[in-house]
Amino acid sequence: MTITSENTNKIFSLLQKQYPNPKTSLRYRNKFTLLIAVLLSAQCTDKNVNNVTKKIFEQYYKPNDFVKLGIQKIKKLIKSIGLYNNKAKNIFHLSKQILTKYKGRVPNTFDTLYELPGVGRKTANVVLNEAFQKPTIAVDTHIFRVANRTKLAPGKNPDEVEKKLHKVVPKKYTKKVHHQLLFHGRYTCKARKPLCFDCIINTFCKFKNKTKL
């Protein structure tokens, strides 16, 4: 059973009250460093990414910086991050592509971002939302979990959930809903032990295995 449109509005109204001005926890210096940080965050915590990029972004924060570094040096800089081999290659090649194709500026459309090495739907949507203030919804594991548990936008994969969310989320909430759902999944609707007893949208949630105090 899915949630009615009336209750959907109530859910997003409550999330808006709890998270009025949500922002990414990733630290960045400019649009380009945001792109790098989001790419590094795949299968890695934001905290770990921030610990690694804190020193990197002090010295390297432009596409040309990473092209000059080369793949091997990039690997050494990010070696404590999961999948660092592939991520280093992607960072080098996307930096080169941004330099040659976009004059060193991060492109601002989904298609142009999505074609960059290592950039998937999630990364493209996060960058568009955070850097360019566009009403995109990037579906990560937290949002996927919340969407399915609540039955707001149930789907078998992130793409399906993303499409359904765009259909049910009222336009006035779309810009902020990515981070609101993400934070709700990270801090309340946790994977192993969801805090259903402390959940502001508990009344409207369709999750069958709600936890109690």
CATH architecture of the largest domain: Orthogonal Bundle
Radius of gyration: 18 Å
The SSE string, one letter per element, is HHHHHHHHHH
Please tell me the total number of domains. Answer: 2
Oligomer: single chain
What overall form do the CA principal axes indicate?
A: elongated
% residues in beta strands: under 5%
Distance between the termini: 26 Å
State the CATH class of the largest domain.
Mainly Alpha
Quantity of strands, as a count:
0
Helical amount among residues, as a percent range?
Answer: 55-70%
Q: Can you say what the CATH homologous superfamily of the largest domain is?
A: Hypothetical protein, domain 2
The main pleated sheet reads as:
none
Mean pLDDT rating: 94
Give the count of helical stretches.
10
* CATH topology heading of the largest domain: Endonuclease III, domain 1
**What structural class should be given to the helix and strand makeup?**
mainly alpha
